[in-house]
Design goal:
This protein has 172 residues and is mainly alpha-helical. The two termini are 31 Å apart.
């Protein structure tokens, strides 16, 4: 729960830093209207999609706070404008074996947690965005594994996570 609150505060801070005060106030008003039961959840989704329409990375982050099945769907043309990486089964298997070997013994909970995240995604119990965020948190102290994990993500999404990581470390 504490991590969720921290993530929400970080998200709001980023929204405030990237938008004008009017746009930020509009963002907050949508949530206050929902909490006061003046609007329905579906209206929240529609309004958030409009407010964040040119900010794909913020929509992806907002989706982590949405109930499963209520994530904001991103336009297909955004996906089609960026070439997809061809992920080979051998590469994925090699990566999973690398994680398993790295965390044998006392740290095997990291490997098991990583596998659990992937299995939950496969079984549609986790959104793609949740997988990205949880894997990033899990592998946070292992930049080589994190970079390799990002190689499996679409370009725009991996770029977002790399930029976020670099800004946390003061890199440019």
């Amino acid at each position: 729960m504490e991590q969720c609150i921290k993530n929400a505060i970080e998200f709001l801070t980023e929204i405030k830093g990237r938008f004008t005060q009017d746009k930020y106030d509009e963002f907050l008003t949508v949530f206050m209207d929902y909490m006061a039961e003046r609007i329905e959840f579906i209206d929240v989704m529609d309004k958030m999609k409009e407010i964040l329409k040119d900010h794909r990375d913020l929509i992806l982050r907002l989706n982590t706070f949405m109930p499963t099945g209520y994530e904001i769907k991103l336009p297909l043309e955004d996906e089609q404008s960026q070439p997809k990486k061809r992920v080979k089964l051998e590469d994925a298997t090699r990566f999973l074996n690398k994680i398993k070997a790295r965390f044998e013994g006392d740290d095997d909970h990291i490997y098991k947690s990583f596998m659990k995240i992937l299995i939950m995604y496969h079984n549609k119990n986790k959104s793609f965005t949740m997988v990205c965020q949880e894997a990033t948190t899990l592998l946070q102290g292992y930049p080589d594994l994190l970079d390799e994990f990002y190689d499996f993500l679409p370009k725009s999404i991996s770029a977002h996570y790399v930029a976020a990581r670099n800004s946390l470390h003061g890199d440019t």
